[in-house]
Write a structure and sequence with these properties.
- By secondary structure, this protein is of the alpha+beta class.
- Strand 10 and strand 11 form a beta hairpin.
- Helix 1 runs parallel beside helix 8 and helix 11 crosses helix 12.
- The strands form 4 sheets. Strands 6-5-14-15-16-13-17-20 form an 8-stranded mixed sheet.
- It contains 12 helices and 20 strands.
- The structure holds flavin-adenine dinucleotide.
- Flavin-adenine dinucleotide binds next to helix 1, strand 9 and helix 8.
Length: 391
């Protein structure tokens, strides 16, 4: 088989890349190790930056997003028993975030690709990428027991943090920069109508908590917990008790309690590789970087990477320009490091660190007080939260 761009991974990065390339007449094949059903039901992120929303609408995959997405023009920070609202849209010239679950983005993109006759292979096995520094790199894999090989012009490694592409560059070519945090998030999805229309980030002496939602009937909540937290020690009653203890405010606000649909523990890390390319392999999304989820940036960063990559590939085919491909990594990393900084800052400001003392507690409270009362402080948070420009 032969294609222009071989794409490994059908997450938001791989699917959006395939969609954007199709719109400029460039063919691709997407290879995914999981089933279509699995990836269309995998619960992960849910906060879309304004730039992600604009891109989806502008490229014809935003119809359901416009019908079902929940546009939020503000976000709340809760500490010392009180909630404080940051008016995102007012501070950023009308920009906002939209709550729309990642699996819905995935469904929309798969639908668009299949509708346009795009090639996607699910449930591939033993995938490997080869001859990356040649002009005809190859992807080998097995599907339904049969071995296949695709010769490509370019390979996009969009296979997430645990994928195979990043590890396929020769040793020493790629450097990694990493922070692992000494806590994790226990996340639940609950059948309970959200009691706040906007997200609430809570700083509490018992630890961080986040109130979020996925639809008018479903709440998504998170609790700071130990990295090795045993879920068996967290029956639903205990989860609700702890969530309410951290989130309840003086005015009587608390999350509504309801049946827990899903529960899980996610570790937290900051991770970036440099460069994000080797030969004709280009890495995008979680394959190249991970952010702690506090800033709600992982999915959005994946989308901004492939936007840059699709433009560079288009310039190669249409204008004969290779320079944008050469600059792909440097171009993306400028934005990635700003987003890393924001995600690290939000995480540091809102979580309880082991060994933290009274000084740290007062410093964190002062910072929260500042960013919820100073217009300059609120604006810094707002412009990062709704998303820095996709250049
Ligand atoms: C458990 C979890 C929960 C998260 N929760 C949040 C959240 O609440 N908020 C938030 O902002 N962000 C969250 N994130 C981050 C966000 O979901 C990611 O940043 C986003 O999915 C990145 O998209 P991607 O396309 O780069 O990678 P992915 O979505 O990981 O897609 C990579 C794809 O590649 C496939 N793949 C992997 N290896 C191979 C292989 N060898 N061959 C073929 N295919 C392969 C995978 O099955 C997957 O479909 C979460 C991430 C995880 C893992």
């Amino acid at each position: 088989m032969r294609t222009q761009v071989g794409i490994v991974g059908a997450g938001p990065a791989g699917l959006m890349l395939s969609h954007l390339l199709h719109l400029c007449g460039i063919e691709s094949i997407v290879l995914e190790c999981r089933s279509r059903h699995y990836i269309e039901n995998r619960v992960r992120a849910g906060v879309l930056e304004q730039g992600t929303v604009d891109l989806m609408i502008g490229t014809g995959v935003g119809e359901r997003l416009q019908q079902q997405g929940l546009r939020h023009e503000g976000v709340w920070f809760s500490f010392g028993g009180r909630r404080h609202r940051i008016p995102l849209a007012e501070l950023t010239g009308g920009r906002a975030i939209t709550v729309y679950a990642q699996q819905e983005v995935v469904k929309d993109l798969i639908q668009a690709r299949l509708g346009a006759g795009g090639q996607m292979v699910f449930e591939v096995d033993e995938l490997s990428v080869q001859e990356l520094d040649s002009i005809r790199p190859k992807i080998r894999y097995r599907h339904a027991g049969v071995a296949h090989e695709i010769t490509c012009d370019f390979i996009a490694g969009c296979d997430g943090f645990h994928g195979v592409c990043r590890e396929s560059a020769p040793e020493g070519v790629i450097a990694a920069y990493e922070r692992v945090y000494p806590f994790a998030w226990l996340g639940i999805l609950a059948e309970a109508a959200p009691t706040s229309e906007e997200l609430i980030y809570t700083y509490h002496p018992r630890g961080f908590a986040l109130f979020s939602m996925r639809s008018p009937q479903v709440t998504r909540l998170y609790l700071q917990c130990k990295p090795d937290e045993d879920l068996n020690e967290w029956p639903d009653d205990r989860v609700w008790e702890e969530l309410c203890a951290r989130m309840r405010t003086e005015d009587g606000w608390a999350p509504a309690v309801g049946p827990v649909l899903q529960k899980g523990v996610n570790g937290m890390r900051s991770f970036v590789i440099e460069p994000m390319q080797f030969g004709r392999l280009f890495l995008a999304g979680d394959a190249a970087h991970i952010v702690p989820p506090t800033g709600a940036k992982g999915l959005n960063l994946a989308i901004s990477d492939v936007r840059v990559l699709s433009q560079a590939i288009e310039a190669f085919y249409k204008l004969g320009r290779g320079d944008l491909l050469e600059q792909y990594s440097a171009h993306c990393l400028r934005r990635i490091w700003k987003v890393q900084r924001f995600s690290w800052w939000m995480t540091s400001m809102l979580h309880l660190f082991p060994g933290a003392d009274g000084f740290d507690h007062r410093r964190q409270l002062a910072e929260l007080d500042y960013i919820t009362t100073s217009r300059a402080g609120m604006t810094v948070l707002a412009e990062n939260y709704v998303g820095l420009p996709m250049e």
